[in-house]
Fold this sequence. Notes:
Layout (H helix, E strand, L loop, with lengths): L4 E7 L3 E2 L9 H16 L8 E5 L11 H8 L8 E4 L5 H14 L5 E9 L7 H5 L13 H7 L6 H11 L4 H20 L24 H5 L20 E10 L1 H6 L6 E10 L8 H13 L8 E4 L4 H11 L12 H4 L6 H16 L3 E8 L3 E9 L1
Parallel strand pairs: 3-4, 3-5, 8-9
Antiparallel strand pairs: 1-6, 1-7, 2-6, 5-6, 7-10, 9-10
Helix pairs in contact: 1-2, 3-13, 6-11, 10-11
Amino acid sequence: MPQAYIVDALRSPTGKRKGSLAHVHAIDLGAHVLKALVERNGIPGEDYDDVIFGCVDTIGSQAGDIARTSWLAAGLPLNVPGTTVDRQCGSSQQAVHFAAQAVMSGMQDVVAVGGVQTMTQIPISSAMLAGQPLGFADPFSGSKGWQARFGNQPVNQFYAAQRIADHWQLSREQMEVFSLESHRRALAAAEGGRFAREIVACEGLDFDETPRVSSLEKMASLEPVGSEYPSITAAVSSQTCDASAALLVVSEAALKRYNLTPRARIHHLSVLGDDPIWHLTAPIAATRAALKKAGMHMNDIDLVEINEAFASVVMAWAKELDYDPAKTNVNGGAIALGHPLGATGARLMTTLLHELERTGGRYGLQTMCEGGGQANVSIIERL
C-alpha cells in the first residue's frame, strides 16, 4: 500500500479569548499558516492537490469553505481547491485522515491540511444559537427518531464531564491537581523553548497566551459551571481561544520529485463512535480498537496527545488504558493551551511530532473526544 508522510507541521500561537489574535479575521488566521507552510517547503503552490481544513461553527467569518478562502487569502494559486471538514472537536484530525487517505489511495500527492477557529468572534455553539429564531436552539428537538432512541437524555458536554467524573470516582480536587499540572507543563515547555520550532509568529505574537500561573487555592474558589455539575469549573475545562495549524502530507513520489525529507509516516488512522449521551468517552474504546487494528499495545507508544476537553476525560482514559501520565500531554494540554475546536486536531499532531523529534521517540498516538460520541485515533511513526 502507498504510504503517506508528514513533511512539515506548524501552528500559530494560541491567542486567549479577546486576546492578541481576537481581531484577526478567521480567513487570515488560516491563511497565515498556509502561507508559511508553502514558503517553508519549496513545492510550487500550483502543485498542491487540495487543501483540507477543519472548522466548527462555519458561520460569519468562518463561513464560505474556509479551507479554500484561506488559501486564496494567502495569495496562493487559484487552481488549488479546498474543502472544510466538521467532525466537531476532531475536525482537523479528521482532515489529516482525509489527506492521508487521499495520498494512500494514490489519487493525490501533495495536500495542505489543518484547521482554524476564532472563538472570540464565533463563540462555541453560535451555529446552534443562530437557529433560535427558527426554533432550532436544540438540534435534537422535534426529531422523532432521536427521541425514540435516546428520549430526553441530555446531550451536554458538562453533563458528560460530570458523569465521567462520578463514574470513574474522580473528585474535583483530583481534577484540579491534574489541571494545575497541565499549566505547569505548558509554562515549562514555553520557558524551555519546546514550542519555538512549531509556532509561526502572528500579529507580533510568538507565544501562547493561554497558560497561566495558578494555584489549587484559586481553583478551589471557582464556582461550578452549573448546580448540576458540582465538580466542573472553568479550571478543569479546556479554554476557548483563537488559533490555526497546518501540516504538509505527501506521497513517496512527491518526496522524490521535490527532494523532501519526511519527518513522520502515518502508521494508523481510524475513527469510532460511542454513546452520544456519555458524549466524551469514545477515546477509550477508539484507542483500544486502533491498537488492535494496528497490532500494537500501549507499551509500544512513546507519547500520547489526548485532548483535554475536560480533566475527567483524560483521567478516565488514562485509568482505562493504564498509560503513563508522564508520557501523556507532556507539554500541557487544552486546559492550559486552549481548545480552538476546528484547529485542535492539527495543533495536537504538530506538537506530537515535534516532541517525538525532541525526545527521540518512535510512535506517537493522538486521540480526542468529539461531539456525537466519536473519537479519531492517529498513530504516527517518527522517521
